[in-house]
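Is this the right way to post structure tokens for a design question? Let me know if I should format differently. Anyway, here goes:
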């Protein structure tokens, strides 16, 4: 029997990506087959496309990238019970072992045996169909769009940052870096009830988008001192939490100077170098709590519930929409127009592209 074929964007080697016909995967007993509705372009996808590796993960074989998706269940394996054909779902793209110490205590994002989509050698979902273990699928309420479903993945990073930073409505927050993760961290902060959110970015377009998406006041780190400007914007009160999402060395070092005594810092953005000097006396003397985050855990159900009815419009981060057949243009846009292409969404079926 001939297997049915689908379109998938295959990256052969860095800067070389093309849409090819490959076999539609068959779901195993505990998996579901999804028809992909839309799927985001992540910074990590662009990094693999440009450099062929991130840290210890190296692209050695042709790979399908993409891990921020939502779609519709079209087939389920024999053991699958909690989703059925026709369900609209978001995908949590890291399948964990469920047995190790980290999985058992609920910190499954630290599972050493995680199989994460679009992390070599695991294929991702820039394709018409994808299979995934069904317990990593989350049903979308009717009120939630597929686009919001796909954005749950990067939003989860912001949500996890709020959880790690023990953020409450009493906090005043500073987010450094307004790329997709920073902008979505701002949305997560709003969902956590935070009303004063300050943010910095070197790019005027991003600061403007931040203001449109609920940032209280913005800072240009090239011409303004973050600590002084925050003092001015908050009438001297300062911020209790810093979410560092730029990965910029100076912004990382500045975080301990910017946050109030007794405050918390969550490091999200990965710097290009491993070692950056921090004022440790300030951390000790000010009883500052410092957290790192790796992806996210236990965020999807909470984020789906918190987003519904919140009035928070996360879709504003989508700046461009492309058909899967235009994948080359899409990743080139993401690679070369980093300042103004915040989140690019890919549609395997171009009929689904609205308000391009
Ligand atoms: Zn991502
Ligand atoms: Zn595990």
């Amino acid at each position: 029997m001939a297997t049915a074929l689908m379109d998938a964007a295959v990256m052969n080697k860095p800067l070389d990506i093309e849409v090819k016909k490959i076999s539609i995967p068959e779901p195993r007993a505990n998996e579901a087959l999804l028809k992909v509705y839309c799927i985001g372009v992540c910074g990590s996808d662009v990094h693999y496309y440009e450099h062929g590796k991130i840290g210890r993960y190296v692209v050695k074989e042709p790979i399908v990238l993409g891990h921020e998706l939502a779609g519709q269940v079209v087939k389920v394996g024999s053991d699958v019970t909690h989703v059925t054909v026709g369900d609209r779902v978001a995908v949590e793209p890291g399948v964990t072992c469920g047995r190790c110490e980290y999985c058992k205590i609920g910190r499954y994002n630290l599972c050493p045996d995680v199989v994460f989509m679009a992390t070599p050698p695991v294929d991702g979902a820039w394709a018409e169909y994808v299979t995934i273990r069904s317990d990593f699928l989350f049903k979308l309420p009717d009120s939630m769009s597929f686009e919001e479903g796909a954005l749950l993945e990067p939003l989860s990073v912001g949500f996890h940052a709020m959880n790690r930073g023990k953020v409450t409505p009493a906090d005043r927050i500073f987010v450094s870096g307004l790329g997709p993760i920073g902008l979505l961290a701002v949305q997560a902060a709003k969902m956590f009830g935070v009303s004063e959110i300050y943010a910095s970015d070197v790019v005027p377009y991003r600061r403007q988008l931040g203001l449109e998406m609920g940032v209280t006041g913005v800072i240009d780190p090239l011409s303004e001192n973050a600590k002084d400007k925050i003092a001015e914007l908050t009438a001297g009160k300062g911020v209790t939490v810093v979410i560092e999402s730029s990965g910029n060395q100076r912004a990382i070092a500045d975080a301990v100077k910017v946050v109030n005594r007794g405050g918390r810092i969550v490091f999200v953005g990965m710097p290009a170098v491993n070692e950056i000097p921090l004022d440790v006396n300030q951390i000790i003397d000010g009883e500052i709590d410092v957290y790192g985050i790796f992806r996210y855990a236990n965020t999807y159900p909470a984020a789906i519930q918190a987003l519904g009815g919140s009035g928070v419009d996360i879709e504003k981060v989508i700046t461009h929409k492309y058909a899967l057949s235009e994948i080359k243009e899409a990743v080139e846009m993401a690679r070369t127009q980093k300042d103004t292409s915040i989140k690019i969404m890919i549609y395997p079926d171009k009929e689904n592209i609205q308000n391009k």
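Format looks fine. Someone answered above. Worth noting: The chain has a mean pLDDT of 96. The first strand starts at residue 5 and ends at 13.
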